Amino acid sequence: MRVHVADHPLITHKLTVLRDINTPSPTFRSLAEELVTLLAYEATRNVRVEPVTIQTPVAETTGVAISDPRPLVVPILRAGLGMLEGMTKLVPSAEVGFLGMVRNEETLEPTTYAERLPDDLSDRQCFVLDPMLATGGSLSAAIGFLFDRGAQDVTAICLLGAPEGVAALEKATEGRDVTLVLGALDERLNEKGYIVPGLGDAGDRLYGTV
Ligand SMILES: O=P(O)(O)OC[C@H]1O[C@H](OP(=O)(O)OP(=O)(O)O)[C@H](O)[C@@H]1O
Ligand SMILES: O=c1cc[nH]c(=O)[nH]1
Ligand SMILES: [Mg+2]
């Protein structure tokens, strides 16, 4: 697995505001969207393109267009939904699939309550969105669903990750073509499986349920 941790003052600045307990939901939502747009720049570095010829007002020239089949973007509900618009703004032609997962806060095991993905992903570049990579259980299961449909090229974008989650994902995806793009790699998980220092529960902070 390739791991890319962002190293950019603008990203670190926005993450600092996102982490702050005093940041209200509307600001949190805007920042999550802005951050994914910045991270998507790195995550889409190898997006497949093909040459196209166009006419400018001055001359004919060759550029590129995103290739068919279009990339698939998969937010993991709920919190991943807060990253969807930032990603589709950058890749408007992408198709969107959905996975709904929730982690049992006692066992830390994820369960899947919604799954809406194309049947055949063998030719598709897939981009999975979830702000938090904690134990790695949710993201490993999500990427497992994509592998089951034949996906061979998967990039996950997370705002924050814990070393424990990165290691678990590495193990779960061994031998596969997976890239992980992180806004920051935090210190550790606490006894409740929360990322430290982290930002708390991303879903609750996005949707004001605290
Ligand atoms: O790496 P893990 O230990 O699996 O934890 C990370 C998961 O937990 C959060 O979702 P949550 O279960 O809180 O659901 P929500 O998005 O509905 O709040 C987060 O958005 C990830 O999906
Ligand atoms: O720190 C964490 C861990 C799991 N899920 C979250 O939303 N935050
Ligand atoms: Mg949550």
TrEMBL record:
<keyword id="KW-0460">Magnesium</keyword>
<keyword id="KW-0808">Transferase</keyword>
<feature type="binding site">
    <location>
        <begin position="130"/>
        <end position="138"/>
    </location>
    <ligand>
        <name>5-phospho-alpha-D-ribose 1-diphosphate</name>
    </ligand>
</feature>
<dbReference type="InterPro" id="IPR005765">
    <property type="entry name" value="UPRT"/>
</dbReference>
<dbReference type="Pfam" id="PF14681">
    <property type="entry name" value="UPRTase"/>
</dbReference>
<feature type="binding site">
    <location>
        <position position="201"/>
    </location>
    <ligand>
        <name>5-phospho-alpha-D-ribose 1-diphosphate</name>
    </ligand>
</feature>
<dbReference type="InterPro" id="IPR000836">
    <property type="entry name" value="PRTase_dom"/>
</dbReference>
<keyword id="KW-0342">GTP-binding</keyword>
<feature type="domain" description="Phosphoribosyltransferase">
    <location>
        <begin position="5"/>
        <end position="209"/>
    </location>
</feature>
<comment type="function">
    <text>Catalyzes the conversion of uracil and 5-phospho-alpha-D-ribose 1-diphosphate (PRPP) to UMP and diphosphate.</text>
</comment>
<keyword id="KW-0021">Allosteric enzyme</keyword>
<feature type="binding site">
    <location>
        <position position="103"/>
    </location>
    <ligand>
        <name>5-phospho-alpha-D-ribose 1-diphosphate</name>
    </ligand>
</feature>
<dbReference type="GO" id="GO:0004845">
    <property type="term" value="F:uracil phosphoribosyltransferase activity"/>
</dbReference>
<dbReference type="InterPro" id="IPR029057">
    <property type="entry name" value="PRTase-like"/>
</dbReference>
<feature type="binding site">
    <location>
        <begin position="200"/>
        <end position="202"/>
    </location>
    <ligand>
        <name>uracil</name>
    </ligand>
</feature>
<keyword id="KW-0328">Glycosyltransferase</keyword>
<dbReference type="InterPro" id="IPR050054">
    <property type="entry name" value="UPRTase/APRTase"/>
</dbReference>
<comment type="pathway">
    <text>Pyrimidine metabolism; UMP biosynthesis via salvage pathway; UMP from uracil: step 1/1.</text>
</comment>
<keyword id="KW-0547">Nucleotide-binding</keyword>
<protein>
    <recommendedName>
        <fullName>Uracil phosphoribosyltransferase</fullName>
        <ecNumber>2.4.2.9</ecNumber>
    </recommendedName>
</protein>
<dbReference type="InterPro" id="IPR034332">
    <property type="entry name" value="Upp_B"/>
</dbReference>
<feature type="binding site">
    <location>
        <position position="195"/>
    </location>
    <ligand>
        <name>uracil</name>
    </ligand>
</feature>
<comment type="similarity">
    <text>Belongs to the UPRTase family.</text>
</comment>
<feature type="binding site">
    <location>
        <position position="78"/>
    </location>
    <ligand>
        <name>5-phospho-alpha-D-ribose 1-diphosphate</name>
    </ligand>
</feature>
